[in-house]
Amino acid sequence: MLPAAARLRRREDFAATVRRGRRAGRGTVTLSLLRTHCGDEADPQTAGPLVGFAVSRGVGGAATRNLVARRLRHLMRDRLECLPPGSRLVVRALPPAAAADHRTLGQDLDSALTRLGLPR
């Protein structure tokens, strides 16, 4: 699973990332990336990248949403190193993510990360 220290949790952080960040979408996911200044060493938790997940009711029922969120967290664990230090990323699942398999979600994540200019 994705380490707890790498999770984006505050509503304000989600909103700022989606509002001001660069966006890239693929068939099952939309990513919003906000690169922040890493020079602020006062708060060491913000030094690493933070990732948040948004899986709305449009994706499906509670069991389906939880399954999609778990898959996305697992996939992002292996992709954390490609995110710049201090950056924030919001991964929003789209309704087709409910029917997508693990491989398809991974391919869409990789494609969106590449479109944002991040190495994969």
Quaternary structure annotation = single chain
Shape: globular
**Measured on Cα atoms, how large is the radius of gyration?**
14 Å
Ranges with pLDDT <50 over ≥5 residues? none
Helix content: 25-40%
By DSSP (H or I, 4+ residues per run), the number of helices equals 3
**What is the mean pLDDT?**
90
- For the secondary structure, the number of strands is 4
Strand content: 15-25%
Q: Give the termini separation.
A: 19 Å
The SSE string, one letter per element, is HEEEHEH
Largest beta-sheet details:
4 strands, mixed
- Biggest sheet strand order reads 1-2-4-3
Question: Which structural class do the helices and strands define?
Answer: alpha+beta
Q: What's a concise summary of this model?
A:
With 120 residues, the chain is an alpha+beta fold. It has helices at 11-20, 62-77, 102-115, and strands at residues 22-25, 29-34, 50-55, 88-93.
Explain this structure to me?
- By secondary structure, this protein is an alpha+beta fold.
- The chain has three helices and four strands; from the N terminus they run αβββαβα.
- A hairpin with a 3-residue loop joins β1 and β2.
Keywords summarizing the entry:
single chain, 120 residues, 3 helices, globular
List the helices and strands and how they pair.
Layout: H1 11-20, E1 22-25, E2 29-34, E3 50-55, H2 62-77, E4 88-93, H3 102-115
Parallel strand pairs: 3-4
Antiparallel strand pairs: 1-2, 2-4
